């Protein structure tokens, strides 16, 4: 399905019934790719909307540059077009960043947030790395970075035990539109939510792998400390792509969190 949200064509999937939940994927992902396990497992108890970010999947690829605020505006427009009342937001990686930024911008309109490996600030080296990656993708295409990004994102134990899944994740990354991916890299390179997090009023669950190099445990703890009602769950032997590496652990944490919100969100 598609909707014009803020003048941009956004592809989405809607399923289930119950309290509303919006799933937000991150850089290099798609709604079907990242949420292939979780979306189906939530639809029995929740009304689930999973959508492709601008520049990704089946959504439109508007010209860059993009900003975090652009992605927040897209989500706001999507929620409005689909008439979703006070959703819970579940985001992975940059999707977690978007969910947190949305909750800070519209604190009364969010039932809760699950941010899975969602960075809220980055060291200078990571910012420059994203800018360099954007340039590489623009010049040489996604194949030039896909395997390196997948290797860095997935724990060694997962890559060794599940080589087919590792290759599948590389294919997911390689299938991205280079222009959209590069513009999103540039948006993430400029992100800094540190001055916004205190505005969040909804309960927040932060989930991250102990081997996550994008949103490492120390950074997650700092984010939790800036939010009034936040809890951090660390998943052992897991990298950044938690929805692929530990889908059962993520499902249990998300279902428990959303179940506690359901009476409020209904």
Question: Gist?
Answer:
By secondary structure, the protein is α/β, with parallel strands linked by helices. Helices cover 46% and strands 17% of the residues.
Distance between the termini: 25 Å
| Gyration radius, rounded | 17 Å
Uncertain segments are none
The CATH architecture can be given as: 3-Layer(aba) Sandwich
Strand line-up in the sheet with most strands: 1-2-4-3-5-6-7-8
User: Helices and strands, in N-to-C order?
Assistant: EEEHHEHEHEHHHHHEHEHH
The number of helices is: 12
CATH class: Alpha Beta
Please summarize the sheet with the most strands. Answer: 8 strands, mixed
CATH superfamily: Alpha/Beta hydrolase fold, catalytic domain
Q: What is the strand tally?
A: 8
Q: Report the β-strand fraction as a percent range.
A: 15-25%
CATH topology: Rossmann fold
Give the CA-based shape: globular
Let me know the average pLDDT.
Answer: 95
Tell me the count of domains: 1
Decide which structural class fits the backbone. alpha/beta
State the share of residues found in helices, binned by percent.
40-55%
Give a verbal description of the structure.
The protein starts with a strand and ends with a helix. The radius of gyration is 17 Å and the shape is globular. The longest helix is centred in the C-terminal third of the chain and has 19 residues, at 247-265. The chain is 46% helix and 17% strand. The chain has a single domain (2-121, 192-265), classed as Alpha/Beta hydrolase fold, catalytic domain (Rossmann fold). The model has no long low-confidence stretch (mean pLDDT 95). It has helices spanning 31-34, 38-42, 68-81, 94-105, 124-140, 146-153, 156-161, 163-174, 178-189, 217-226, 242-245, 247-265, and strands at residues 2-5, 8-15, 20-24, 47-51, 88-92, 112-116, 204-209, 230-235. It has an 8-stranded mixed β-sheet, with helices on both faces. The protein is built from 12 helices and 8 strands. It is α/β, with parallel strands linked by helices and 266 residues long. Helix 3 (68-81) packs across helix 4 (94-105), helix 5 (124-140) packs antiparallel against helix 9 and helix 6 (146-153) packs across helix 8.
């Amino acid at each position: 399905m598609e909707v014009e949200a803020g003048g941009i064509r956004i592809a989405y999937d809607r399923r289930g019934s119950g309290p509303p939940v919006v799933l937000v994927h991150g850089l290099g992902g798609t709604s079907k790719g990242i949420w292939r396990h979780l979306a189906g497992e939530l639809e029995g108890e929740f009304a689930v909307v999973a959508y492709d970010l601008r520049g990704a999947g089946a959504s439109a690829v508007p010209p860059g540059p993009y900003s975090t605020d652009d992605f927040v505006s897209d989500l706001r427009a999507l929620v409005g077009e689909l008439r979703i009342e006070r959703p819970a937001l579940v985001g992975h990686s940059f999707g977690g960043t978007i969910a947190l930024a949305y909750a800070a911008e519209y604190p009364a309109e969010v039932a809760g947030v699950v941010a899975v490996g969602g960075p809220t600030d980055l060291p200078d080296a990571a910012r420059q790395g994203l800018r360099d990656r954007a340039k590489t993708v623009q010049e040489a295409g996604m194949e030039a970075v896909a395997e390196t990004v997948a290797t860095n994102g997935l724990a060694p134990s997962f890559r060794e035990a599940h080589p087919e899944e590792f290759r599948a994740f590389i294919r997911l990354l390689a299938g991205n539109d280079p222009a959209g991916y590069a513009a999103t890299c540039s948006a993430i390179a400029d992100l800094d939510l540190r001055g916004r997090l205190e505005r969040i009023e909804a309960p927040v669950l932060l989930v991250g792998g102990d081997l996550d190099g994008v949103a490492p445990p120390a950074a997650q703890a700092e984010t939790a400390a800036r939010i009034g009602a936040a809890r951090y769950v660390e998943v052992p032997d897991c990298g950044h792509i938690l929805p692929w590496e530990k889908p059962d652990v993520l499902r249990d944490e998300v279902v428990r969190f959303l179940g506690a919100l359901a009476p409020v969100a209904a």
